[in-house]
């Protein structure tokens, strides 16, 4: 296990919010509304870190891999950093090498200081962000709220946003999961309720869905992850369609399993192929293929593809995700 020596999960650094239940301990960082770390308290050998993080909260200010962050205002890629609707166009921040707006721009929600709402108890925290009209080019004022809540052996994440004029919204939680703190994904087993996936073109934008059968994205029956899965970076089309919170995937090692539920239509898998060490880690070392992101989301480049992702005064945005941890 690669925790930092003498780290006490019940004593986070200054400015980090501590949540705990009998089974789990979470550290939440207001910068980027990030899940800095989640520990399994009853792990053999002592509390085990389950995500990738940094030992020093200040290190997140230089993070460009969105470790534990809430990405938005629109996560993933927006083609050409441009929006168009009703005869109007908006130029967004083009922070991707191919000219797209990625994760809401260079100063997207994952790179902002969120406000911590007054605490109700030690198992839950609410974080708030007020994004002005024109922020990174997006139309309308967006008032976002994110909740992290521990319920026994479960972590519940909920995002909401209200807007004073129409704007696309797609908030996602971007933790890197490694359930045995081993430094690689070998030994992990993934199953996902998806029969289709979204290939991407040379500009990293989604193409029409293709069957997962016979591809490296076929996790419907479940399979062990290998070194080749470091290259994973694609969205699965979940079945059944999004009609509410439902169980969609399971990631497991020998002594612990994570069952993921969401109300979103897609699950983006990222095998951390671009991860590089930049600062002292908290948990497994930050090397390529050291973890798997399980990003529940709406359609990448959704506004340009006609997806129903615009929200406004008569329609608030909401997104729920639940992670249930169980032992054999």
Briefly note the structural class of the backbone.
Answer: mainly beta
The pLDDT mean sits at 95
* Helix proportion: under 10%
The total count of helices amounts to 0
What's the CATH first level? Mainly Beta
Strand order of the largest sheet: 11-12-13-14-29-24-23-18-21
Approximate strand percentage: 35-45%
- Report how far apart the termini are: 20 Å
In total, the number of strands is 29
Order of helices and strands: EEEEEEEEEEEEEEEEEEEEEEEEEEEEE
Shape by Cα distribution? globular
Oligomer: single chain
CATH topology (level 3) name: Beta-galactosidase, Chain A, domain 5
Supply the number of structural domains: 1
CATH architecture: Distorted Sandwich
Largest sheet: 9 strands, antiparallel
Which parts are unreliable, with pLDDT below 50 for 5 consecutive residues or more? 1-5
Query: What does the radius of gyration come to?
Result: 19 Å
Description:
This protein has 328 residues and is mostly beta strands. It has a single domain, classed as Beta-galactosidase, Chain A, domain 5 (Distorted Sandwich). It contains no helices and 29 strands. The protein has strands spanning 17-20, 24-29, 34-40, 48-49, 53-54, 69-71, 77-78, 82-85, 88-91, 101-102, 115-116, 124-131, 142-151, 154-163, 167-168, 172-174, 176-177, 189-192, 194-198, 210-211, 223-224, 233-238, 246-253, 256-262, 266-270, 281-282, 292-297, 310-311, 317-326. The chain has a nine-stranded antiparallel sheet, with no helix packed on it. A six-stranded antiparallel sheet has the order 17-27-25-22-19-20, with no helix packed on it. The protein is globular, with a radius of gyration of 19 Å. The protein starts with 16 loop residues before the first strand and ends with a strand. The model is unreliable at 1-5 (pLDDT under 50).
């Amino acid at each position: 296990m690669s925790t930092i020596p003498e780290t006490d999960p019940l004593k986070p650094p200054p400015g980090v919010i501590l949540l705990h239940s009998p089974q789990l301990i979470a550290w939440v960082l207001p910068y980027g509304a990030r899940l800095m770390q989640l520990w399994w308290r009853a792990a053999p050998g002592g509390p085990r870190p389950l995500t990738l993080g940094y030992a020093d909260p200040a290190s997140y200010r230089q993070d460009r891999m969105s470790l534990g962050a809430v990405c938005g205002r629109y996560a993933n890629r927006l083609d050409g950093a441009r929006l168009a609707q009703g005869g109007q166009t908006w130029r967004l921040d083009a922070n991707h090498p191919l000219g797209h707006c990625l994760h809401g721009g260079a100063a997207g929600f994952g790179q902002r200081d969120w406000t911590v709402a007054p605490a109700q108890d030690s198992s839950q925290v609410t974080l708030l962000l007020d994004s002005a009209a024109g922020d990174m080019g997006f139309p309308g004022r967006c008032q976002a709220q994110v909740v992290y809540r521990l319920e026994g052996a479960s972590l519940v994440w909920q995002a909401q946003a209200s807007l004073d004029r129409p704007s696309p919204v797609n908030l996602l939680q971007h933790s890197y999961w490694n359930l045995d703190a081993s430094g690689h994904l070998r030994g992990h087993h993934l199953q996902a309720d998806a029969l289709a996936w979204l290939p991407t073109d040379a500009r990293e934008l989604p193409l029409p869905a293709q069957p997962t059968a016979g591809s490296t994205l076929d996790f419907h029956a479940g399979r062990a992850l290998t070194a080749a899965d470091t290259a994973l970076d694609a969205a699965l089309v979940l079945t059944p369609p999004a009609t509410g919170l439902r169980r969609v995937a399971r990631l497991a090692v020998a002594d612990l399993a994570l069952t993921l539920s969401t109300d979103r239509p897609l699950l983006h898998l990222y095998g951390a192929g671009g991860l590089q060490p930049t600062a002292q880690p908290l948990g497994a070392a930050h090397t390529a293929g050291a973890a798997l992101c399980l990003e529940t989301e709406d359609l990448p480049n959704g506004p340009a593809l006609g997806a129903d992702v615009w929200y406004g005064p008569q329609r608030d945005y909401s997104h729920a995700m639940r992670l249930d941890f169980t032992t054999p």
